[in-house]
Amino acid sequence: MATIEDVAKLTGLSRTTVSRVINNHPYVSEEKRKLVLEAMEKLGYVPNSSARSLRNQKTSILALFIPRITNPFFSELVEATEIAAAEYGYQLIICQTRYSPEKELNYMNLLKTKQVDGVILASIQNEWKKLKPFLQYGPIVLCNEFDDRANVPTVRLDQVYGGYIATKHLLEQGHTKIAYCSGGYRSNVAKSREIGFKKALAEYKVSFHEQYAFRDAFHIADGKRVFQKMMELSERPTAVFTGSDEVAAGIISEAVKCGYRIPEDLAVVGFDNQAITELTNPTITTVHQPVKQMAQKAVDVIVEKIQTKKYETKEIYEFPLQLIVRASTLGSKLHQREA
């Protein structure tokens, strides 16, 4: 592998002059600049970007923290964020925390060691007090996940409303025995959806029963497990609102396997509007999240913060949610099922 010394030897110039060319120093003649660039190309020499970045305090790299790349919601967010970042000339690296607080803190050191210019957190595994100290090294923007204690820009959705409209839809179908599935207990997104779920129940004067609450459900396999748990109840739910299309797909798969009719025997609502919602049979009623708009806004904001160096500013950017009604709930009204 070629070194800076090899370039200097080939050009007959000093190592200092070659370094100045690499770092775009203004006091280098065009003749010498051209000579160095030609030598670099001939030798296949690639400058050490990490070393230059430490001197320039800029890497043109952003880090996006997600819990699980295999979740279609986060896969879509990754793609949309990369596209938005590229428009500004930034590269994107993905940090998969797998819901681990320790991994999250380890990845935050990328900001501390100046290996990235900023961090976008799409999930949060630690209390904010543990993350706040990293703001002295660069900007942090929350996207999707949020923490009201964080004095940083937040791009979020009205998750309370999302939980509310999904549950209200089931109540309008005549259901009163409605189960609820959520993800991680640390997630404010999941907590907010549950608030919306309970708000809709209260509006219709329907009691919430803890036996109908199923937590830590993330995958298709979790959805299958949740259905089996529901079947163990003496009084089984007639509908279920999940915080994930993957979980909804798992519930439907297991229900159909066990001879249940969807939605006649069990109505199912997912969340995210992932591609899987139109591939299952029946298709899945869900809540659409504008992922591309969120990603674009998060990148717009973090680039602005990098430029202004104003890292601790509380700004809230909230996007709307939309209920998409499909076959997993259509025709599930109780009077139709009992006719």
Automatic annotation (TrEMBL):
Q: Which residues form a coiled coil?
A: none
Q: Per its record, what are the GO molecular function terms?
A: DNA-binding transcription factor activity; transcription cis-regulatory region binding
Q: Does the keyword Ribosomal protein apply?
A: no
Q: Per UniProt, which keywords does this protein have?
A: DNA-binding, Transcription, Transcription regulation
Domain HTH lacI-type, chain residue ranges per copy:
2-56
Task: Output this protein's name.
Answer: Transcriptional regulator, LacI family
| Record organism | Anoxybacillus pushchinoensis
